[in-house]
Amino acid sequence: MESTAEPPLQETYKALLDSKSSINNVGANMQPVTELVEECELPLIDLSMLGLGESEREKCKAEIAEASQEWGFFQVINHGISEEILEKMRSEQVDVFKKSFREKERVFPAGTYRWGTPSATCLPQLSWSEAFHVPLIDISSLGGFTSISSTMEQFAGTVSELAQKLAEILAEKMGHKATFFRENCVPSTCYLRMNRYPPCPISEISGLMPHTDSDFLTILHQDQIGGLQLLKDGKWFAVKPNPQALIINIGDLFQAWSNDVYKSVEHRVVTNKVVERFSTAYFLCPSYETRIQSCMEPSVYKEFSFGEFRQQVQHDVKKLGYKVGLPRFIV
């Protein structure tokens, strides 16, 4: 029998796919992705302004902080990551996903290759996607894919510095020094996630179910297919792809650290019936022991470690089928 590259999504989740009634009785944010969604353009920030005079530099920093407060998402251009690296990353990523399903399971380290949603109990909880979730310290050990390992190391090095720069700016705009991020968000705790969203014939299924990110910052490089949507003022918006830009979004840890000044916004990925979609995300994370404490009083959230936060998220996903997140830690 010919080996296929596709993960066995249809076979594994056949019971859910056969039971359309499983979409009933779920929360509003978990409803099927069938409604028409208005397209939006995220705030676009030119980071080359950071290298100009003081007024231009301060204007750029203010735009970053404002977008993080109002949208929780923004786009950056002239970000310092070469088009050559981005294109090479995309090309080699596509090649890796074309490998047979068994090879993808076998060659990457245990737990790195992920697909579907093992905890799903209804269609809106099912994510129609596959991904390689790779801690930065494990990139060099991808011996079966030496070419992409080298490219990922190049990409990770440049995008890590960008994430640190943005975190420092956001801290500075709140009147705080940013040594916290350099000290706690190191290569051994951050990771890359290469995503593929296969074509999906069923409109009730998301490519990635609604969620917020459990980190400080996420940096996303996506293709031009589209599919990323975010929730703003109680309404879903489709993010218009920009081939020159990287997408930045605030994570839960930055919202807690900033005492709700910066917003970790719920977002999702919708599937396409005929075209596959690719993206690569970098996640700025601290060690599990790192304590997260609001940087002003009165604090909205009680102090917690990143490990405690992750453990609570995993418990909720296993028990409820979805993430609760920061509301669990409100004072």
UniProtKB/TrEMBL annotation:
Keywords: Dioxygenase, Iron, Metal-binding, Oxidoreductase
Reaction catalysis annotation: gibberellin A1 + 2-oxoglutarate + O2 = gibberellin A8 + succinate + CO2
UniProt-listed GO biological process terms: gibberellin metabolic process
Annotated EC: 1.14.11.13
Pfam families: 2OG-FeII_Oxy (PF03171), DIOX_N (PF14226)
Stated family: Belongs to the iron/ascorbate-dependent oxidoreductase family. GA2OX subfamily.
InterPro entries given in the database record: DIOX_N, IPNS-like_FE2OG_OXY, IPNS-like_sf, Iron_ascorbate_oxido_reductase, Oxoglu/Fe-dep_dioxygenase_dom
Location of the Fe2OG dioxygenase domain: 188-286
Coiled-coil features, chain-numbered ranges: none
Keyword field contains Metal-binding: yes
Recorded GO MF terms: gibberellin 2-beta-dioxygenase activity; metal ion binding
Protein name in the entry: gibberellin 2beta-dioxygenase
Organism whose genome encodes this protein: Daucus carota subsp. sativus
Origin superkingdom: Eukaryota
Top EC class of this enzyme: oxidoreductase
Keyword Iron: yes
Lineage: Eukaryota, Viridiplantae, Streptophyta, Embryophyta, Tracheophyta
